[in-house]
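PROTOCOL LOG
Step 1. Enter all chains and additional molecules of the complex.
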Amino acid sequence: MEELLKDFPVVIEVPVAWGDMDAFQHVNNTVYFRFFESARIAYFEKIDLMGLMQEIGIGPILAAAHCRFKIPLTYPDRVSVGARVISTGEDRFTMAYVAVSHRHGKIAALGEGELVVFDYGKNYKAAMPDVLRDRIAEVEKGSQVQV
Amino acid sequence: MEELLKDFPVVIEVPVAWGDMDAFQHVNNTVYFRFFESARIAYFEKIDLMGLMQEIGIGPILAAAHCRFKIPLTYPDRVSVGARVISTGEDRFTMAYVAVSHRHGKIAALGEGELVVFDYGKNYKAAMPDVLRDRIAEVEKGSQVQV
Amino acid sequence: MEELLKDFPVVIEVPVAWGDMDAFQHVNNTVYFRFFESARIAYFEKIDLMGLMQEIGIGPILAAAHCRFKIPLTYPDRVSVGARVISTGEDRFTMAYVAVSHRHGKIAALGEGELVVFDYGKNYKAAMPDVLRDRIAEVEKGSQVQV
Amino acid sequence: MEELLKDFPVVIEVPVAWGDMDAFQHVNNTVYFRFFESARIAYFEKIDLMGLMQEIGIGPILAAAHCRFKIPLTYPDRVSVGARVISTGEDRFTMAYVAVSHRHGKIAALGEGELVVFDYGKNYKAAMPDVLRDRIAEVEKGSQVQV
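Step 2. Run joint prediction.
Step 3. Record the structure below.
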């Protein structure tokens, strides 16, 4: 499992709830996006993005989300969810996620999210500030070292 | 709004619940995938896919899901969600979804889902049966006529 | 169905989503509280409670919630959910809810909620303002007339 | 915290997800019922109720659910949720739940659930089987010993 998560500088662990399953008796597809969201928020905390939002009035907005389902999850299980930034652009960055099932010791799902940098004052997208770029680079450098 | 939905042979209408919003005071990203799921199930009913599952032991499994968020939704609003099949392969088909905000009269989100045909007896993916291909073609033909 | 809802001055209608069902293939118990919440918010809109919150800094906090499940709901169905205020106290009021299944033409669940009036400035519960008491009385009087 | 949970023979621990919060920026009321459900299922596992369901075709149905909210939960936090059976009747039993916030070291919510014993073959409620009564007594005796 560590091998599957080694490229991800932020990893959270979540129990699968019985109520996460739907009538097909697998964890419902929407729950995987909740898993990715929780890992995304943990990543944002690591770079203190919320602090940055309050300081300079700029924050991320989810512009696109993707998930590829590899193994159906069922209760009981625990899931480790990793998040990393795989590219940064002028006004956006892309995150990759992985959800690893403890029960199976395998990847249950792979995800991606596109985050647009938004200026809440101007109510319009903004250039990605250097401080954000730097903080992401620092966190991701750490993960390279782990590798 | 009809123009935005005209290519979709199956359209459902859903109220946005206050509780669909998260702490950022927009409808949470996972809820869009619930919208798409509801439209997908309505499409499956139109081609009686559940009946087919029981008859020949074959059914669809969601292999991938995607959403591009265009406008943040807020309560109160109503959403019309369209579903269509945009391609069929040897053992899978791809659906496209659109979620249209009544309040804005605009597309709130675009989605896609990849469905793999699964043989529950063999516990393995299966060739797409002709009857399923035919039923999809018939439903989609109807939508072309609407156009 | 009208008979079942006649004492409720606020009634909303909600489709049951396929994804509301859990692994027991009934609508999950948490969803009933979402139904009641949606009806509660609609009631708050009717008495412009949000406006009142902004004007005088006072709002309701859910202190207790109760549900008695009468019939298991399944997809597909539509539910009409009624909300009314059944008692008002010094610093709180009690709402009653009913969820009526269209498919069965019967009550699916009965609920209650206790709302405490909260002063956001003092961060403490507050005496119920007369204006709130009056607005509730007016809405509830209307429902008596319907009867 | 141990003191708060000592009467509960089954305790689970759950992280609060950012997405559990609603537009009022507190954990939404429906999530507490999900917490209680997860603890209830863990209790059912401890008495192997699912095994019993398959053996003798009898299982529990949630007839009523109640929650008293004591402290608003927010992300980030972790919650320990305890479940116990506080009474058994002819054809039903009552569970009590507690949700303890790690951040506050206090009770966030108290809950109760009424479970009716149901015979799936007869599609009607059934007398509570002795084996179920015995297993509950054994689990609850254990909790007394802890005290």
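Step 4. Note key features.
Residues 29-46 of chain C form the longest helix (18 residues).
The longest strand of chain C covers residues 106-119.
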